[in-house]
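re: ur question from earlier - yeah i can do the single chain one, its not a big deal. heres the input i used so u can compare w yours
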Amino acid sequence: MEEYQRLYKAIKKHAPSLEEEDYKQIAKHGIDGGFNGFIYYKDTVKFFNENEKLIEDFIHDAAIEHGYDSIFEMCSALATVHSIDEFKNWCSWYIVEQVAHWKTDMDREYTE
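and the output i got, formated as tokens:
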């Protein structure tokens, strides 16, 4: 859970205008609909570069947990990427979606 909290703080720092409803929408529909701070490659690459170690550690653990040998194998199975920027974009989107699911689940637990 600490890892999710650190990622959430990194997302809030990068895109402070994201609101609770945004996280719910991301959890429900995915991030590719366009959310402030995560629309353009320049933004997603910046987020990745500023949080590279945290992102890599999280996705590595997720890859192993889901039976992949590496981040790259998991990425290849879930997306088509042709450049390092596309890879960084995918990683950034993956992180935000996972945090949105975690946050939505946590919010639901506290309101039930």
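Residues 38 and 44 are 5 Å apart (CA to CA). not sure if urs matches, ping me
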